[in-house]
């Protein structure tokens, strides 16, 4: 909200020496956010001049210029020669002259300069050049603005160009502050200055009159809410629409961000800014009968003031006459009854409409307006009579009209709600000691009616504060006005013994370990289509049950994911399209696994403002599908870049297996890998991940067709695990081992086994047979070729043996190795390769 200081001073005592920074500081102290200072940015000698004569001089480019002799007063150098391209003035006209040394918005410095064969000693200004509007078709003729000042007098003060405005951000719950009235009251709260309410007028001054046809039909209220709470109609006869808007009003509207249109329209906008109640004016001679308020009928249309023909919705609240719709109530008027250059009789409307209805209409038609912005936030229902009277007064004073006897108003009795505020509640909630007298003083200053009760106060909020609905909002006002700087900053102390749960700690260890090993964590939207859920949410790719969103953001992705891989593929695609070809990504997130034939959801909502019972919580948990947390990784491109003396290393299946091992080590459990099949993975390059025989995930190379559909090139390897299950199977085991003090004995063994035997199974046999002396075993070679029978393979394992209490002999290490070989022979027919 932009507030010109000259306007603010009409209703509250702002010291003459106060700067915009002072006003900002005061408003910030009561909870507003400072935006910027707004002025006309016009400085230097800008004076009233009178055109004595001019000569029209055609130019070679076809342009006509006028070489003018302009009297700017003896004090300003007398008569000056000035070049002007405008054609809308005559000898004798008084104009605004910017003399050398002046600076206009831009900034645009004025100086004497030679042009078109003359030295132009200044410039005759237009409204646009002074920042007073968008009109650049001609210069300002002061007679057209209703002015006849003395030649040579200061034009800056004459046109209000010396005024300045402060712009503050108003939060949506404080709609009363979208007015000079509201912010003047807030300034008074902050400074203690005297405030004069411009809406406080005797009832006999603001009577609406009688006899004007008014019909309110709200038989179909929106969601049980009446569409209109107050509606006042006044009439003004015999206005002169050709009269200019006075400079002071034009300047204030401009500073407040409203474009000057015409005197009659400017008056309605001016009163809206002043009192916060949007006003609409109708050309009385273009009305058919009286005015009514009702909901739209199916198929009705309306052409609004912006020239757009709109098809109306049955929930839209309309202003109508006997011919049909003439305006969208609280949003924008219609073309048929707009105020124009031929208007001589005006019907003035001031109303209070339902905020929900207006907000829905404005959004439905994509038609935000200054009026709808205020109605959405709540307008004081008791200010309509004063606002209508203010418009009438200004149209009489400035447009030469006469108040009409005709008028109407909706019978309205405001009922203030009473809020119980315990005396110690504010102090206990905020942490500041607020004496009872101080609380009552603050609440009365913001306009509340306060009475004492046995344990505190009974508070009736003022009509302009619809946001004050309970004791918590009252406490917010007490803290705000007393000073938010007084609220202490105290960090709560965590109770002893609290912290992350075991599952939370394990998940963080997994994420930290993956990030430390060089992967980048990503977060993708959990929304996919059925094809993605079928492909990645099952091993065989068959259709699987999915959770469908009631109101999806994207109609092409209406389901919740069953796998993290679709999101990782989208992330990889986006990065590759932007030139990032080497990717190592991971995500930890929730997947949604509904069971076929199970209906989820509950008809009853949990209770508010209290903790649900254990039975209610169990019911809520049963009403949602299983949502385990998964961990997934994706590798593409190079895992190590090309370096001097070293070729680039491509990411492959071993990269994904390393990530799986990293997850297992961080969770505290060993994860085994066995050959497997999966529809989304390459045949023969896919594995099943198990813990103690229980499947917990999969790993492998993405099927080329799947990679191609995602526009990914080269080999792409992935892995996905049920992280919740991994952590659960890890249990509370914590492995702590001492540093070895005795040397290790290392040996290798090459075993020939059938080619279909998984290397992991052979490794498990070696571990089972070698016993406790075996400290580590790793597969180092898988050979198939000359010297190995067809249908067989040679697996070479590196073994490390160590004893905790002695140095092992070579014989002891060999004995343990051969024990492992024996078990492998028994299980798979393994033979030591010669």
What does this structure look like?
By secondary structure, this protein is of the alpha+beta class. It has 6 domains: 2-40 and 164-191, Phenylalanyl-tRNA Synthetase, Chain B, domain 1 (2-Layer Sandwich), CATH 3.30.56; 46-158, Nucleic acid-binding proteins (OB fold (Dihydrolipoamide Acetyltransferase, E2P), Beta Barrel), CATH 2.40.50; 203-409, Phenylalanyl-tRNA Synthetase, Chain B, domain 3; 419-486, Phenylalanyl-tRNA Synthetase, Chain B, domain 1 (2-Layer Sandwich), CATH 3.30.56; 502-598 and 614-730, Bira Bifunctional Protein, Domain 2 (BirA Bifunctional Protein, domain 2), CATH 3.30.930; 745-832, Ferrodoxin-fold anticodon-binding domain (Alpha-Beta Plaits, 2-Layer Sandwich), CATH 3.30.70.380. The protein contains 21 helices and 41 strands. The strands form 12 sheets. Strands 27-30-31-37-36-35-34 form a 7-stranded mixed beta sheet, sandwiched between helices. Strands 5-4-3-6-11 form a 5-stranded antiparallel beta sheet, with no helix packed on it. A hairpin with a 5-residue loop joins strand 34 (672-675) and strand 35 (681-691). It is elongated and about 120 Å long. The model has no long low-confidence stretch (mean pLDDT 91).
């Amino acid at each position: 909200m932009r507030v010109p200081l000259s306007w603010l001073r009409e209703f509250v005592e702002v010291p003459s020496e106060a700067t915009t920074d002072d006003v900002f500081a005061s408003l910030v102290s009561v909870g507003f956010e400072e935006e910027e200072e707004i002025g006309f940015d016009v400085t230097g000698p800008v004076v009233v001049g009178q055109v004595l004569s001019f000569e029209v001089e055609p130019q070679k480019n076809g342009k006509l210029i006028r070489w003018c002799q302009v009297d700017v007063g003896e004090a300003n150098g007398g008569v000056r020669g000035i070049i002007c391209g405008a054609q809308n003035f005559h000898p004798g006209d008084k104009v605004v002259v910017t003399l050398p040394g002046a600076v206009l918005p831009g900034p645009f410095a004025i100086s004497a300069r030679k042009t078109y064969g003359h030295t132009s000693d200044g410039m005759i200004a237009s409204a646009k050049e002074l920042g007073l509007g968008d009109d650049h078709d001609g210069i300002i003729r002061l007679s057209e603005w209703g002015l006849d000042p003395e030649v040579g007098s200061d034009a800056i003060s004459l046109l209000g160009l010396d005024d300045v405005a402060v712009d503050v951000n108003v939060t949506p719950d404080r709609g009363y502050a979208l007015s000079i009235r509201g912010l003047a009251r807030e300034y008074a709260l902050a400074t203690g200055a005297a405030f004069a309410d411009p809406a406080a007028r005797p009832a006999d001054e603001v009577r609406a009159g009688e006899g004007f046809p008014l019909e309110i039909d709200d038989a179909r209220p929106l969601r049980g809410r009446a569409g209109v709470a107050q509606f006042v109609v006044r009439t003004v006869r015999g206005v002169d629409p050709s009269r200019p808007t006075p400079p002071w009003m034009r300047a204030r509207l401009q500073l407040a961000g409203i474009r000057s249109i015409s005197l009659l329209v400017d008056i309605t906008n001016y009163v809206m800014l002043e009192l916060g109640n949007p006003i609409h004016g109708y050309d009385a001679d273009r009305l058919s009968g009286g005015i009514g308020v009702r909901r739209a009928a199916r198929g009705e249309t309306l052409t609004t003031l912006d020239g757009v023909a709109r098809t109306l919705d049955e929930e839209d609240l309309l202003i109508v006459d006997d011919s049909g719709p003439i305006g969208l109530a609280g949003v924008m008027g219609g073309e048929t009854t707009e105020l124009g250059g031929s208007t001589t009789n005006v019907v003035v409307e001031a109303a209070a409409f339902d905020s929900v209805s207006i907000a829905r209409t404005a959004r439905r038609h994509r038609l935000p307006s200054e009026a709808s912005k205020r109605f959405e936030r709540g307008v004081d229902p008791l200010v309509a009579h004063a606002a209508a009277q203010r418009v009438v007064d200004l149209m009489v004073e400035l447009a030469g009209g006469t108040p009409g006897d005709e008028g109407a108003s909706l019978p309205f009795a405001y009922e203030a709600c009473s809020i119980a505020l315990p005396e110690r509640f504010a102090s206990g909630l905020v942490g500041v000691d607020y004496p009872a007298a101080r609380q009552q003083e603050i609440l009365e200053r913001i306009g509340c009616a306060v009475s004492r009760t046995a344990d505190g106060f009974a508070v009736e909020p003022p009509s302009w504060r619809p946001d004050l609905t309970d004791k918590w909002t009252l406490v917010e006002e007490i803290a705000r006005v007393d000073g938010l700087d007084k609220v202490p900053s105290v960090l709560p102390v965590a109770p002893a013994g609290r912290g992350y749960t075991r599952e939370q700690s394990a998940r963080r260890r997994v994420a930290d370990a993956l990030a430390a090993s060089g992967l980048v964590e990503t977060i993708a939207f959990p929304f996919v289509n059925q094809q993605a859920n079928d492909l990645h949410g099952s091993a065989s790719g068959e259709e699987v049950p999915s959770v469908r969103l009631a109101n999806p953001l994207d109609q092409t992705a209406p389901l919740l994911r069953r796998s993290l891989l679709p999101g990782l593929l989208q992330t990889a695609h986006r990065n590759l399209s932007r030139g990032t070809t080497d990717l190592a990504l991971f995500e930890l997130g929730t997947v949604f696994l509904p069971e076929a034939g199970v209906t989820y959801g509950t008809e009853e909502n949990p209770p508010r403002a209290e903790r649900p019972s254990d039975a209610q919580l169990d019911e809520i948990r049963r009403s949602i599908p299983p949502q385990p947390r998964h961990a997934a990784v994706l590798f593409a491109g190079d895992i190590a870049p090309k370096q001097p003396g070293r070729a680039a290393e491509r990411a492959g299946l071993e990269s994904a297996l390393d990530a799986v091992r990293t997850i297992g080590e961080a969770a505290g459990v060993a994860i085994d890998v066995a050959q497997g099949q999966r529809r989304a993975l390459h045949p023969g390059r896919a594995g099943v991940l198990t813990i103690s025989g229980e499947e917990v995930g999969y790993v492998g190379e993405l099927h080329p067709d799947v990679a191609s559909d995602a526009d990914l090139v080269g080999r792409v390897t992935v892995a996905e695990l049920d992280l919740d299950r991994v952590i659960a199977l890890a249990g509370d085991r914590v492995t702590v081992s001492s540093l070895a003090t005795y040397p290790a004995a290392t040996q290798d063994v090459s075993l020939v086994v059938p080619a279909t035997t998984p290397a992991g199974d052979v490794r498990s046999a070696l571990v089972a047979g070698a016993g406790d002396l075996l400290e580590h075993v790793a597969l180092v070679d898988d050979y198939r070729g000359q010297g190995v029978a067809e249908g067989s393979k040679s697996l070479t394992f590196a073994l490390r043996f160590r004893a905790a209490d002695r140095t092992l002999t070579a014989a002891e290490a060999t004995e343990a190795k051969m024990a492992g070989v024996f078990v492998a022979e028994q299980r798979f027919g393994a033979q030591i390769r010669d």
